Amino acid sequence: MGSAPQTDFPPIRACIFDMDGLLINTEDIYTDVANVLLEKYGRPPMPWSFKAKLMGVPGSSTGAPFHDWAKVPIPREQFNKEMKALQQNSFPKCKPLPGVEKLLLDLQAMYNVNGDKVHVALASSSDKINFASKSSSPDTKVLFNIFPQDRRVLGDDPRLEKGRGKPAPDIFLMALKTINETLVEGEKPITPEECLVFEDSVPGLEAGRRAHMQAVWVPHPKLAAEYAGQEKQVLAGRIGLVPIGDEWQLGQFDDGWAVQLPSLENFPYSKYGMKSTS
Questions:
Q1: Of 120, 212, 249, 250, most Cβ neighbours within 10 A?
Q2: CATH code of the domain containing 163
Q3: What confidence tens digit (pLDDT) does each residue in 237-257 have?
Q4: DSSP helix/strand/coil, 47
């Protein structure tokens, strides 16, 4: 399943970003909120070995897998209502993760070695209500204003087919479509191979690979620990947390299309053929 790494990648012309746990610290908020409620109802805190299976899966924080594990002694609907209320109270307090602000500001003045402008888009499984909460603080409002309104694709976007969340590639392909539809006259359409996906979750990384885009995996340290020894499978998109078929979309071990980074600090622009004009 291994292959010689590809080295002739085209310079990057578009960077497409996930949000939760990559740009902002909301994955920790999801965990903290869940644990507050679990303790309230006499249940143990959620271990990372279980949380790792939920990250990046749309609706997983209140879905059947969570409740089958949690076994809280109240109706599921009541627990979910309390969970969402606590989340909405906590999301406005979220903060950008290390390196995020500099990276996004840098990209505003970034071109590639061929002289093409580098564009950005957001592709998040969060719905509009949660996005509004997460982008309401002064810090995050500035951050998300970098993404043009018409280049934000959220989980409840009507253009996305229901049931086709990550690890399906649809959301990243739609994000690329929004970029191509808003290019200035004279800019040629951007291909998937010219895109760089930024993700923290395993299903999200798989979605980027299925979209045939280059990818950067920036996992939470505790998520990285859960997948220690399986990094090649993750980077190839071959963990298979949510089986969807279409195996031909997946990568091969060590094929060079994806890398793992500890954070978004000191991002290696030159590796992707990008350079700043500032």
A1: 120
A2: 3.40.50.1000
A3: 999 998 898 999 999 999 999
A4: coil
